[in-house]
Amino acid sequence: MPTPPKLVAKPVAPAAPVSSDAAEWGRVVEDGTVEVREGDTWRAVGQYPDGTADEALAYFARKYDDIAVKVTTLENRVQTGEASAADLSKQAKHIVGELTDAAAVGDLAGLRARVDALLESLSEASAQEAQAAKEAVDAAIVERTAIVDEAERIAALDLSKVQWKQITADMAALFDQWQAHQQTGPRLPKGTAQQLWKRFRDARSTVDKARRAYFSELDDTHRTARDAKTRLVERAEALAPRGVDGIPAYRGLLDEWKAAGRAGRKADDALWAKFKAAGDALYQARAEQAAAEEADSAPKIEAREALLVEAKAVADESDIKKARALLTRIQRQWDEVGRIFPRDKERALDDRMRSIEQALKGREDVDWKRNNPETKARANDMSSQLVEAIEKLEAELAAAEAAGDAKAAKDAKDALEARRAWLNALGG
């Protein structure tokens, strides 16, 4: 067999005694070459100069032990499942490479058999992991596609009519989901990931563009309203010297304010505070004027209260003409008192006086109807006619009774009673 390249190693002292395993699997030939038994053949693994045969075997036995420790460690990791089958398979294959023509003395075939057994057991696990990984990727594609679909659904809305606060929050939440999915989810195929990202990016761009356009237009609208309301504030403040007389003009400015539109919450609040302060000054002037007028009206109220007490005699006066004369004098004095503030107090006093006036007018109407010459003439004429009718009916009643005509007598009697009732109503 060809002579393998010699591995020249530096001695390490002191060397451990040669184990029985080393002696079983290795030997040192006459020229100092160390060989390892693999099956029925011997393979040279190197030389150990400046040392004894036992030291040479011990050195290469330690090389074997190093590989054996790796195999045992790998077996333990497979048992605990602390790494993926793919990673463990990669480590096992690396050990296989180390075992191939290894410069070591020991049961290399036994180690290789153990590693082969690991590779066989890991093969199925690796296939399962690969299938699970594929399923995880497929599920991740579905999840990320759902994020993209929702972003595209939002982008397809009529973005001129949406609530931007909600839409912005929804898009931000979708972007957070996208980033979390990238960080925690499985890695997607590059082509699929790029295609999904392009769709998501385009949807976000559509929404962002519409949002910027909306708020740009809103800024213009707010600016226009802000300028208009600023001018309204200046005009309202200019009304201050007019006092109460400025209130009608201020009400007109208030109508313009309502029609000016929104200027943004902060600007609206600040401008409204100034506009309202200008109006409050005008209404304060009116309140002060009303208070002064009310104070001035106190003696007038007392005067009218006294006139109302005096006017109670109108109802007690049986002579209507005297009652009218008394009320006319009181009304003249009532008017001479003058205007009273507040107006609701004046209206209450006027209502009390009006009830006295209406009561007297009612009495006058009744008296007029009773004493009207035309009414009396009509009543007298009707009374004469009723008297004649009654006399006629009395004669008819007597004739019917004499003739024994019960029906004619009853009819005459009923008609007679009706005529007499009418005559009594007329005072006859």
Folded structure, characterized:
This protein is mainly alpha-helical and 428 residues long. It is built from 12 helices and 3 strands, in the order H-E-E-E-H-H-H-H-H-H-H-H-H-H-H. It has a 3-stranded antiparallel beta sheet with strand order 1-2-3. Strand 2 (33-38) and strand 3 (41-47) form a beta hairpin. Helix 2 packs antiparallel against helix 3. The chain starts with 19 loop residues before the first helix and ends with a helix.
In summary, what is this structure?
With 428 residues, this protein is mostly helical. The chain has helices at residues 20-25, 53-80, 85-99, 108-155, 164-184, 190-237, 247-259, 265-316, 320-337, 343-371, 373-403, 406-425; strands at 26-28, 33-38, 41-47.
Span of the ends, CA to CA? 172 Å
Broad shape: elongated
Strand % is under 5%
Contiguous uncertain segments of 5+ residues: 1-18
Number of strands: 3
Strand line-up of the largest beta sheet: 1-2-3
Helical segment tally?
Answer: 12
User: Over the alpha carbons, how many angstroms does the gyration radius reach?
Assistant: 62 Å
The share of residues in helices is over 70%
Sequence of secondary-structure elements: HEEEHHHHHHHHHHH
Structural class: mainly alpha
Question: Which helices and strands occur, and which strands form pairs?
Answer:
Layout: H1 20-25, E1 26-28, E2 33-38, E3 41-47, H2 53-80, H3 85-99, H4 108-155, H5 164-184, H6 190-237, H7 247-259, H8 265-316, H9 320-337, H10 343-371, H11 373-403, H12 406-425
Antiparallel strand pairs: 1-2, 2-3
Features of the shown structure:
single chain, 428 residues, mainly alpha, three-stranded antiparallel sheet, 3 strands, 4% strand, elongated, disordered N terminus
